[in-house]
Amino acid sequence: MTLQTSSLVFKVKRNPPELVTPANPTPKELKLLSDIDDQTSLRCHIPLVTIYRHNPSMEGKDPVEAIRQALSKTLVFYYPFAGRLREGPNGKLMVDCNGEGVIFIEADADVTLDQFGVDLYPPFPCFDQLLYDVPGSDGVINSPLLLIQVTRLQCGGFIFAVRLNHAMSDAIGMSQFMKGLAEIARGEPKPLILPVWHRELLFARDPPRITCIHNEYEKPQLHDNNNNNFILQHSSFFFGPKELASIHRLLPNHHSKSSTSDILTAFLWRCRTIALQPENPNHEFRLLNVLNARYGRSSFNPPLPEGFYGNAYVTPAAITTAEKLCNNPVEYALGLMKKAKNEGTEEYVHSVADLMVIKGRPSYFYNDIGYLEVSDLTKARFRDVDFGWGKAAYGGVCQGYLSSILYVPYTNSKGVEGIMVLTCLPTKAMERFGKKLDDLFKIKGKSQILRSHI
């Protein structure tokens, strides 16, 4: 397997950033975030991108202007996004709905989409130019909640990139906002799914009470003193039907009804651990499973209302040691993961909200190689966002992180549908990780690694 590093360099000319405000007057009020929203772990910014090819039927139409005007109209419905977060007593976050607006950047790049390659997938070259970090805009409190850059390409395509204050929305909520924005850009008078606030559904109970075990917020007991002075490498891996079938064959037949996502997660958790080569066999490794309260075992009864765009997920953790994870088959990892996921009920969601109030909004313990959060974003369907130029050639997150693996739905240039896996590891570990995948899939005549970038 050969790791490919992108060498594409291009220039982006940006207009000065501007604030886009709601097209009509909106309520001036304070709106409390939920106790799931305002966790310390979500006080960060998340970049997302959708990429569009040239559409001859849209000749003469400007995507920048279409999206700018649609954004102003969309903010009438999603007016909290035009406000600013404030922090109240005991770290409680609220939105000051003051209509100040979101940051919008108009840009042009001297590059065509074809120059990015036949297949489009992260990490994208010069992405810091496609989503410019406006100085002074990256605070969580008292800062714009969205930063959007629309970049025209020389071929007639364009790139829509957005930076989201994660405390406001999860991936499902942000996808809903982007689809509503796209619908208005296509001429609809309002989003087809109207936004619903109702963050009180995920407030802590009165009195709060922790009824479940929440290992994801506890510091690991067994770990190494890791040397963090390593170079990280970002990579994307495509798993099509053949590769996923190969992973299924690693398990006994009685796992035939296990979901593809679960099996892939267990497989990657084990591969990643082996690739990291932890020195201490008792180093604690934990897998955090992202479960959304909108669906599945975590779903509410009655369900969260359609249009709810807040954070609605929890992350029950599976825990083991490096030695056990590496020396046991994939079935062992799958069993641990399923057990943890089964704990992620509606009661678990309420217990997390209560824990935030009782324990002062603790964060996940990120600073350890043994921590891994796996988030399946296939249901967010960012590539379905259509501003009038058709569905996106790529839609989703821009990169993985050392502490995470992210799944994005993907169709390659040959029309094969599958899952794009985004991750990040120290360079040597990424080489070992890629080789382990290659050793499995070369037997099937297919190499998995698509692109890597240091």
Automatic annotation (TrEMBL):
One of its GO terms (molecular function) is acyltransferase activity, transferring groups other than amino-acyl groups. InterPro entries: CAT-like_dom_sf, Plant_acyltransferase. Belongs to the plant acyltransferase family. Keywords: Acyltransferase, Transferase. Pfam families: Transferase. Transmembrane segments: none annotated. This is Uncharacterized protein. It comes from the Eukaryota. It comes from Lupinus angustifolius.
